[in-house]
Amino acid sequence: MTTVKLVITIIQLILCVGLTAIVLMQSGKRSGLSGAIAGAADTYLSKNKARTLDAKLAKMTKWVAIVFVVLTLVLNMIG
Description:
- The chain is mostly helical.
- The chain has helices spanning 2-25, 32-37, 44-47, 53-78.
- It has a domain at 1-25 and 50-79.
- It contains four helices and no strands.
- The longest helix is centred in the last third of the chain and has 26 residues, at 53-78.
């Protein structure tokens, strides 16, 4: 059981560093509410938002965070 716990802990540590890096690579949401009011949603760039690097980083953040939480729960149940 200790080997499994050690492997999961190492994977969780790698995910932690990866999650931190992914979050730091994302750009800030500078426009905020003023961008929505000004009509920035109608631009060409907003229509292709799903293909941008920020959208991919947001998806990666979500999935890495889910795996991190699941591994935390598993480690809590093991030991």
